[in-house]
């Protein structure tokens, strides 16, 4: 069993398709199929089940995927150790879209300057998908809306965010979700924590949320709101960065829906040199907003003001 085989196995498991995994790894599909068959023959088990034209992990495959993430982490740790513990090698960081746009550029620049031997890769997605990436080992760390009720994770807070509802400029003041019930809501796809907050706000006020219109950019959401097509939820910092922000009405929310904290999270026991280096950069940039590490016990007993889960 070779690391190259395990990287192919991991890519196919995450993509659910040999073709997409081949595109991701810049290899031909036939090569991946051959290497996977060799791995299955060596282990004496089937690693995948074919369901509805998609490859699903078998029970044995799920076990191997978990060990694969641990092996890659140990590989990177060993690489750093023989180089005197200096950060080096691959480091895959997940981030929410808003964090990527507002807070990440400066952190990335400082990290690249300080640790040029690290191959830092950034993947943007909703919080739910990022947490799934952490649990499967696809991501080394992730900046998410948290902390969430998930066991086996450690984390440190990055920064606090204030959330606001935006509507067309001439909309009357919004004092509760009843004032916008039935309106279309512009949001990211399922798994977005801000979307879950918005749904919880409507439920709390016993108001009916209108149709969720999924748009994969805050600029697109803002344009639709300016046109009078509906409402959207975003952080004040995100709104402040968008051209055209003066063309909407901004409505503050009541607690607990007005506040959110962005956390850097990772799997317990996976705190290697690259991640430690990122935490140092993060703490230097945000100072007191990024204090001591918070541990999440086996019951995951940290919670948000609403029930959160991976979609």
Automatic annotation (TrEMBL):
One of its GO terms (molecular function) is DNA-binding transcription factor activity. Keywords: DNA-binding, Transcription, Transcription regulation. Residues 1-58 form the HTH lysR-type domain. The keyword Electron transport does not apply. The keyword Transcription applies. PROSITE patterns: HTH_LYSR (PS50931). InterPro entries: LysR_HTH_N (IPR000847), LysR_subst-bd (IPR005119), WH-like_DNA-bd_sf (IPR036388), WH_DNA-bd_sf (IPR036390). NCBIfam families: PutUtilRegPtrR. Belongs to the LysR transcriptional regulatory family. PANTHER family: HTH-TYPE TRANSCRIPTIONAL REGULATOR, HTH-TYPE TRANSCRIPTIONAL REGULATOR GLTR. This is LysR family transcriptional regulator.
């Amino acid at each position: 069993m070779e690391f190259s085989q395990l990287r192919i196995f991991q890519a196919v498991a995450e993509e659910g398709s040999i073709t997409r995994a081949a595109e991701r790894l810049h290899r031909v599909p036939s090569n991946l199929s051959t290497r996977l068959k060799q791995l299955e023959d060596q282990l004496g088990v089937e690693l995948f089940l074919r369901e509805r034209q998609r490859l699903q992990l078998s029970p044995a495959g799920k076990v191997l995927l978990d060990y694969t993430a641990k092996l890659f982490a140990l590989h990177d740790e060993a690489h750093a150790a023989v180089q005197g513990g200096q950060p080096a090698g691959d480091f895959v960081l997940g981030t929410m879209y808003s964090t990527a746009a507002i807070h990440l550029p400066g952190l990335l620049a400082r990290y690249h300057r300080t640790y040029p031997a690290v191959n830092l890769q950034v993947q943007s997605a909703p919080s739910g998908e990022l947490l799934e990436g952490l649990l499967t080992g696809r991501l080394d760390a992730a900046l998410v809306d948290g902390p969430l009720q998930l066991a086996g994770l450690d984390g440190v807070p990055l920064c606090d965010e204030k959330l606001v509802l935006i509507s067309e400029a001439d909309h009357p003041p919004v004092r509760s979700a009843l004032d916008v019930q039935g309106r279309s809501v512009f949001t990211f796809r399922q798994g977005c924590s801000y979307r879950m907050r918005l749904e919880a706000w409507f439920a709390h006020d016993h108001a009916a949320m209108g149709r969720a219109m999924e748009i994969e950019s805050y600029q697109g959401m803002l344009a639709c709101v300016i046109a009078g097509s509906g409402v959207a939820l975003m952080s004040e910092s995100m709104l402040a960065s968008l051209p055209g922000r003066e063309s909407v009405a901004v409505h503050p929310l009541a607690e607990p829906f007005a506040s959110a904290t962005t956390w850097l999270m990772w799997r317990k026991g996976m705190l290697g040199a690259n991640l430690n280096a990122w935490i140092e950069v993060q703490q230097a940039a945000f100072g007191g907003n990024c204090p001591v590490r918070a541990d999440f016990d086996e019951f995951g007993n940290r919670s948000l003001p609403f029930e959160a889960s991976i979609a």
